[in-house]
Amino acid sequence: MTTLDPRRAPDGPADVTVGAARGRTWRDVVRDYVALTKPRIIELLLVTTFPVMFLAQRGIPPVWLIVATLVGGTLAAASANVLNCYLDRDIDAQMNRTSNRPLVTGTISPRASLVFGGVLGVASVLWLGLLVNWISAWLGLAAIALYVVFYTMILKRRTSQNIVWGGVAGCVPVLIGWSAVTGSVSWEALILFLVVFFWTPPHYWPLSMRFREDYAAAGVPMLPVVAEDVAVGRKIVGYAWVTVLTSLALVPVAPMGWIYTVVAVVSGALFVVESHRLLGRARRGVAGPALGAMRLFHYSISYLTLLFLGVAVDPLLHLPLPL
């Protein structure tokens, strides 16, 4: 692995000692460990967890159950992200976007991160199993395994479809939220699972388009690395349409009312329009930052947030459709 920092710590004792030797405070150490968990990704996963609990309850679930589920989900996601950083530390060192991560700079040792990720994983399963239910706990464990083994170890460096199938891990929080309330998994939860599944490629591929050179340098065959922008744009448009249509399938199945339906239609229409605009710019030969891939990336996050906000609010202020 490329060493960017000559002061990099060896794969040895926990880096509290290393941090002290460098004059780092305990706050610096905590900040680096938190960075390994990728908090922004965890936030997005939680956005798809707690709204589903409101739909499953058809009201407001017990506060203690919401808190217990979110804490357990956070621990599971943190574990998966830390172990991902451990396994990907070699390619992170070759990408500008990730070159400042603690395992690359050496402020945290590989051994310490591996222990940290493992402890978080065990804690998440025990927390969910003992305080929520064991179905949610096993789903949390499955999410960790899917992200760490299926995506990071098997798919990521081997196929341009890595984010498509590897994205399954990011869909599991929906099932955790539902099972936490009901103790089972139903069609409503599976539809929302599919929404996140189909949403993941048009969310992540624009980011990959923006940082294509990084992925190429690291030898990661993200779709924008191995395909032209127009071809990627077509797939993004296709997945965006399927995402929106799948979200509308929830209306008759749940059933949902006016609030969710309006939110799904309006935000979904904007998602599709932004996808078509990206494809249009690609067809005109626009490249680089002017392509506007990050505009779609950021809107995709807003779209998912608004959609799941509708999932939470609709059962609270249910206005039935004339079906």
Account of the 3D structure:
The structure is a single chain. The chain is built from 17 helices and no strands. It has 323 residues and is mainly α.
Helices and strands in order:
Layout (H helix, E strand, L loop, with lengths): L14 H7 L4 H11 L2 H9 L2 H8 L5 H25 L1 H4 L9 H4 L4 H22 L2 H22 L6 H5 L1 H15 L4 H24 L1 H7 L4 H4 L2 H25 L4 H26 L9 H21 L10
Helix pairs in contact: 3-5, 4-11, 4-17, 5-8, 5-9, 5-11, 8-9, 9-11, 11-12, 12-15, 12-17, 15-16, 16-17
Brief synopsis:
This protein is mainly alpha-helical. The chain has helices at residues 15-21, 26-36, 39-47, 50-57, 63-87, 89-92, 102-105, 110-131, 134-155, 162-166, 168-182, 187-210, 212-218, 223-226, 229-253, 258-283, 293-313. The longest helix has 26 residues, at 258-283.
Tally the helices: 17
Strand residues, percent? under 5%
Morphology = flat
Mean of all residue-level pLDDT scores:
91
Number of strand segments: 0
Note the run of SSEs as H and E: HHHHHHHHHHHHHHHHH
Query: Radius of gyration from the CA trace?
Result: 21 Å
Which key features would you list for this structure?
disordered N terminus, single chain, flat, 323 residues, mainly alpha
